[in-house]
Amino acid sequence: MAEDSTPDEAYGKTWQKTERKFTHKPASEFYDPCQDFADRSLKCLKRNNFDREMCGDYFQAYRDCKKNWLNQKKGVTNPN
Length: 80
Fold this sequence. Notes:
- The chain has helices at residues 7-23, 35-47, 56-74.
- It is mainly α.
- It has a domain at 31-74.
- Keywords: Disulfide bond, Mitochondrion.
């Protein structure tokens, strides 16, 4: 039972089907500048047996980053 195409050809066909969708999406759907803060929050939770009170600073840093990033996207220079 041999297939008609090699794995490389199958990958190429799949990429051709999705390339336009992938390359024309806004950058924000692929890159989150606050992902590092999110990762640190999750690591803190795991390290502290999921005690949210121990990781409040990490959560606040993520919220602040996300708020600033969204304000930048909206074009707000001084949200205060």
